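#dry-run=false #mode=assembly
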Amino acid sequence: MKQSNVIWVVVMLLAGVYLSWRAVSYQAGAVYVAPKIVADADSGKSFTTWSKVPSVESSNPGVEISWPRTLGIWLSALFTLAIFSFLFGDNVVYKVAESIFVGSSAAYAMVVGFWSAFMGIFVAQLAPQFSQNTFMPGDDRTEPEWLMLIPLAMGIMFLWRLMPAGGWISRWPLAFFIAVFAGLRLVSHFEADFVVQIKSTILPLIVFAEDGAFDLKTSLWNSTMVLGTLCCLTYFFFSVEHTGVVGKISRVGIYLLMITFGVGFALTVMSRYSLLIGRMNFLLKDWLNLG
Amino acid sequence: MDKFWNSLANLDRRWLFALTFLAISIPLLTGIVLPQKVTPMVENVFNAIDELPSGTKILMPLDYDPSAEGELQPMADAFIRHAAQKKHKLYFLTIWPTGVAMIQRQVATLKKEYPEYVYGEDYVNLGYRPGYEGVIKLITSDLPKLYGSDQQGTPVAKIPMMAGIDSIKQFPLIVNVSAGDPGLKQWVQYAATPFDSIEIVGGTTGVQASTLYPYIPNQMIGMIAGIKPAAEYEKLMFEKYPEIEKRPNSNMANVFMTSQEVAHFMLIAIIILGNVVMWQTGGRRDQS
Amino acid sequence: MRSFTIIICLLLVAGTSDVSAQEVAPPSNLNVFDVENDKGEELRLTWTLSADDPNTETKEDVKEESANEPPATLNNPVVGYLIEVKSGNQKEFAEAGKVDAGVSEFKADDLERQEYSYRVKAIGADGSFSTATGISAATPVRQWVDRSKIYFGFFMLVVCGSVVYFIEAAKAGKQLKVRKIAGLEAIEEAVGRATEMGRDCLFIPGIQDINDIQTVAGLIVLNRVAELTAEYDAGLDVPTTRSLVMTVARETVDGAYTSAGRPDLYNPDNIYYVTDEQFGFVAAVTGKMVREKPAACFYMGAFYAESLIFAETANTVGAIQIAGTAMPSQLPFFVAACDYVLIGEEFFAASAYLSGEPQQLGSLKGQDVGKFIAGLFLIVGALLMTVSQFVHRGASGEKTGPLQDAISFMTESLLGT
Amino acid sequence: MLKRTVPLIIASIVGIVLILAKFSPPIQSWETEVVMWFDILAVFAFVLGAGNLNLNNLKKISERKAGWGYAAITLLAFWITLICGIGKLGVPPNEQYLGYAWSGSFEAEGSAFWWIFNYVYVPLASTMFATLAFYISSAAFRAFRANNVEASLLLLTALVVLVSQTSSGPMLSDLIPEESTWAIFKIDTIRGVLVNLFNTLGTRAVMIGIALGVVSTSLKVLMGVDQSYLGGD
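#status=ok
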């Protein structure tokens, strides 16, 4: 154990030396920004915003290196390595990255929900004057939308569970929404998955070409499509035991499903490797400036 | 010998991880490229851009995010290089908030390799507008309503190449790169299908591709689905414009494709090895 | 009528050739209809294009026949049309919209349910307007029932009705037989094994919110799994990606422990919120798997790319894995990497099986009727189309006849949406 | 009564009304309205989620449980991100409304929240996603074994499609002359049949089954046959 620790320390040190060398001599991970001044004649106010420019423009006037963003690139690279390290076993670095990830992504989702749904819809519709005077100046709503009191009431009912008594009232909004989506999904799945799929599988089993000749290829194709779908459907029958003829048909059905899954698996492989290539490319090019 | 197979049967999967890592990264670092056979669909996409007269206005919506970069960046690069080589006018925009950074990358490529391209005259970055497919529906009839200014906040009235553009019907071709919904499907449905004057080609991920094939060729000229066709596209481009090949990173799809090729054969070998091990050890599967 | 207009135009062109701007020929035959199956806010307008419209068909025909006649006869071609509207109490016409040349229809929306009068003018290239068409009027009508969806509704009623019928029949005491599903028998075995090993059962109800019916189905399965863990006194661990799912899961597990007679064992802390974000959740859950080594993992709900990450990580700690999902794209990964998988419909059926309540089994019988109807449609439809192939063998052109009517009734009406 | 019967009545009425709404144009828009309410309720629910996250981690810290340091890091990351985002730290005002300090987008380039998103969230999420490439290898080694007919079919189809996705596979199979009877064994042809025929038919059957499963689960919820989501009394 001790020996392996020594090896790790040496490896880390070497990596550190290499990275400092890349950072200094090749400006690994450096990000350049250019300023833009936005001024408003009416209020006399002006602000400077900064946006990223390609490193070829680093010598242009006004362009300067952005330390927060350069630090960001380095941090991204370290996070990338931290997540990859989990593949070789749980470790401190991964646990730190995981903790940061969980905390900040939970807050991220809440911030998005807060600004887009809560402020952007709820407050903007219930208190248009307030929202237009503060965070949504471009909005042209004048009258409050009183319907928004319904979700407010439901929200209060839902949060009532934090109270010592009467927490059961929170079941009402939950039942409401579970039922709402049960109804909506019932119709949409029936439409898109049931009706449309049946419709597109209704094909002639025997096909003749324009000139009246028998079209073997299309006939075989269509027949397989129709009969194969029927076999797979048989597999899903619950009230019939899978024995005898039904058993044989459902057997063919499960074989066909396995082929489907085999194809599905392999088709995804290319995209998954591409993800890894993308990450490696970030490490090698964006960060280390290699190649 | 039995001992050997048994140890393989209980192979620590970290060896497989290491193998995958090497299969992906070594080709990336060496930059070796393999020959490609060009398929007809890729040729159609290439010709759609190539046969337009120089200076044609092309709308380039880039709707993807960093996680899809590994698959879509090379084809976006190839589209941009090809279009710039033909001196087309490029109009970038995106309906994904994360697309803004992707456009910045393309702009960087243009600045670096085509210094004669002038912002506002040859290309413009209109940036992101929220609204998903609603954006597409709106700009088919009224572009300035949504895009009153470019990404930098410059009013379109001050951008020479925006003069006279009131809807995307003025673009004979849309070149879209997309990683999901809303994306290529919506551009086909709401822009290319209702308006005969707009043609569309696209680039998308391999996973997305199967849902898009039905639109070809009636509603969409063709598409580049994944790294492999992107590599073929680059080959076509190099044949016609050999000077592009000499630039750094211009053959990214081909380099990535070598990684894919090696990784795919590694995976096939792993599957076969798994089966050989199973036969040799009599199907025992020790889980640790 | 149209040719007459053209002649007049040509005469005008001939007579006043020194004047560059010509009066534009007006469009004609304006018709206004109510849009069917809407809530009474839309009207549809159609008209015949102006003779000076470059897209007017007669011009095209002429062009094809005599190429020597140049399209230059259009001194002042139409560039668009102006639609004007006047509602009941207004006196003046106001602009309702503009369309491009070549377009001969317009949809007016956001209307009240009152009478609207319309007229259309052509706009010339020089910006002048033609005289207006005759005035045409209509009132938007509100339809309470969308008649285009009646067949779809009827079809849905049949399938839903059979599910309801069998649930009620089972309640009334009708005996129903159902086959076994391997993955379900394994659930009890897995909980038992976790108890023996003294390790937890990990249950993930998917990564979607409660508005996804798969999450609801997953929570129903959780109810049965929780009953088992209560009986066996095994540990249960339920990480969720949504606050609402956490809340409902707590109610569910609480109820399950109560009905298993062990409310003392219920600990709400074991059902907790991690983060809304997909991969943040994955990072936390895989970390937990490696550290706490659950003996059984259940994945029941809507899953995306994380399916394989979960399955491969749990495999390294030697957990029994049972998955159920209705995401077709993730089934291959679960099938390859888990011990048992409930495929699509089996996942929804699981709750009925596990409850063992007769009325729940009735719903399965109803689903089978649905599949039977699907199969019947496939067979009848395919046979009809095959017969049609024989009947129309070698024939070109539009297929007609009662056979074709039957096919289109089936695909367009019954299966039309 | 109030705990169980009323929610069940609510569920039945609301669900049926929304099913009918699909068939009645005047009330079709209720769907959008109600879906919007749900998004708002989800924000209210964040109070519970955030409370739970904070309580759990605080408990770990105060009890000095193993790994309490990580709990502290999680809390720190949570609050920093939340404050940066809700407080719009470093967000410049909207360019058209400079007088309104809060008018900028909470994700504006250069803001603190934008920085966290780009340099913390994005690399962590996309790397986690990318680890799938490794898991594919390990799953292929352990799970793709021809033990029985089902597994063999899964394995064989996966192999064929994998070969078809390479460059050299199709090139090799192009050595088969176009006109020969063996031409149907060209890898692209086989791939076409597998992807467009077998994959389609299997997926269709699965989707038809899923639709029926959804219909019956929804009906059970609306009829009150399954009440487990309401918990005990």
